[in-house]
Amino acid sequence: MKAAQDTQKPDLCPGLLDVESIRKDFPLLARKVHGKPLVYFDNGATSQKPQAVIDALKRYYTEENSNIHRGVHYLSELATSLYEEARKKLRRFVNARRLEEIVFVRGTTEAINLVAQSYGRKFLGAGDEIIVSAMEHHSNIVPWQMLCEQVGARLRVIPINHDGELLLDEFRRLLNQRTKFVSLTHVSNALGTVVPVKEVVKLAHAGGVPVLLDGAQAVPHLPVDVQEIDCDFYAFSGHKMFGPTGVGVLYGRAELLDKMPPYQGGGDMISLVTFEKTHYNVLPYKFEAGTPHIAGGIGLGAAVDYLAGLDWDQVAAHERDLLEYATQAITKIDGLRIIGTAQEKAGVISFVLDHVHAHDVGTILDQEGVAVRAGHHCAMPVMQRFGVPATTRASFAFYNTRAEIDVLVGALHRVLKVFG
Amino acid sequence: MSELDDLYQEVILDHNKSPRNFRAIADADHKAEGYNPLCGDQVTIYLKMEDGTIRDISFQGSGCAISKASASLMTAELKGKTAAQAQRLFDSVHQMLTGECDERKEGQGLGKLTILSGVCKFPARVKCASLAWHTVKSALKGEGAPATTE
To answer: Contact B4/A367, CB-based, under 8 Å?
Structure first.
C-alpha cells in the first residue's frame, strides 16, 4: 500500500484522484476472497457498484415501487417521474440532442439486436454489406450474421494490425456502394484498443452509411459525446459503468429511430390498439415494450450522478497511470506476452504466459484474491487473430490502485512457481 | 494453499508437461471432437477398437493443465478396456468430479484417476476435467455432433 499512499494523498497533490476515498464508496471492494483482500480486476466483465446505486435500488423497492406510465395514483406517478428523470440524466451523460433518442434496453447486446432487426430488416437487402471489425465482441458479430441470413446481406471485416489497432486504410477499401451499415466497437473488450471513432464515422458518412458504436467498454473509461462523435447509434450497458445489471441504453438519432419499425410488440409501445390496426407510440416508447427494469433505470441514473461527481481529467490520468504501471510491471515477468499493444488503450491488459493456460492462471490468481477474466472474452475471432486459445485479462477501473497491481504481480510469480 | 496443491499435484503437472498419447491415429475407426464453449478448450479423441476393446487411444487439442492432464490420464487408463468398462469408468469419474468431496472414497476402481479428485473443490474447473471424458463417450457412441461440456 505504501506506493499508493505516497502518491495519492489528496491534500498534498490536489491534482490526483482521491482513490482511497473513492474506494470507500464501493462497499464490495472491502471484502475478502479466500481469506485475502479482494483485488478486483474483472471490471471489463462487470464493475462494482457505489453505495449510491445500491441505495437507489433499495429505496426504489422499499419506498417507491410501482409500475410506470400507467397508474394515476401517487406511487405510479412517482416511479414514472424517477424513471424519466433517469432518462434525462442519461441524455446528458452522452450529450444526445433529444430526450427521445435515449431508449432503455436490457444492455448492449439487446441494443445491437434491436438495431440489426429493426433498422437492418427494413433497410438492408440481398447483396448489401455490413462492416464490422476483427476485434468485435460476439454481441457485435452474431446479430449481424443473423441479419445477413435473414436478408441475404454480407458481413465484411476490417482487419487489425499486430498491436490490435484498426487498419483505417483497409476500412476505406471495404467501403463501397453496397455498404449499408457499419457497426464497430468503441473500446475493445479483449485488447483495450480505443478505436478512432470520429474518423470512422466521418469516412462512413461520406458514403452515406450509418454507424453504430458498441460503447460497453468505453463509457466506464472516457466521457462520450454522441454529437461530437456524430455516430447514428451508440449502445452501452449499465452494469459495466457502475450501475445495475439488466439495464442499458441505445442512443439513436431521432430521424433514424422514427423511420424504424418497433423491435418488440406489447404494452407501453402502442398508442391505440384495435384488432384491425395498432398505432405505435412515439419515441422512445415505441421501442420499450412491456414493463421495463424500472429499478435498474433509476439505479443507472444514480450511477450517472456518481460519475458526474468525479473529475474526469483526474480519472483519465489515474487510469493511464495504472495502465502504464501495470504494463511495465508485468512485462518484466518471464515468458509473459501482452496481447493488445495499441497506442490508444483503455485500462485493459490481456496477456499470455508461456506454457501456462489462462484458466490455470485465473485459478491461481483467484486463490490470492485477485479476480481476472480467463478465456476468449466472447471475442473468439480476436483470439484466432493472435493465434492464442485464450488470454488472461486484467481490466481496471478508477477505484483500482498501484498496490493492487503489485499483488497481481506477486500472484503471477506464484503461477510461475506452481508451473516452474 | 492446500486446495491449490490438491489441484495441481505433481502427476497432473507432469501429464500437462508431457502428455501421454498426444498424437493422431491415422487409421482410427472412432474419432470425436469436444469443445468447452465457455472457455474455448478443444480436444479430439482418436480410438482404434478391436472386438469391442480399445486397442489404441490418443488425443490432440488445446486447453488448460487440468483438461490436458485429464485427457492424458484418461488415454493411459482406457487402453485395453472394453467399451462397457470405459462407460463405467466415465460414470465413476463424473461422480468423483461433481460429487460431494467429503464423501469421496478411494478404491472405486479409479486407480490413478483419483489424482483428479482435487478438481471438485474448484467448481469452475470441473468442465475442464470432464471434457475428454464427454468426448470419448461420444466417440464410442459414434455420435456425429461434437461433444460439449454444456
So the answer is: yes
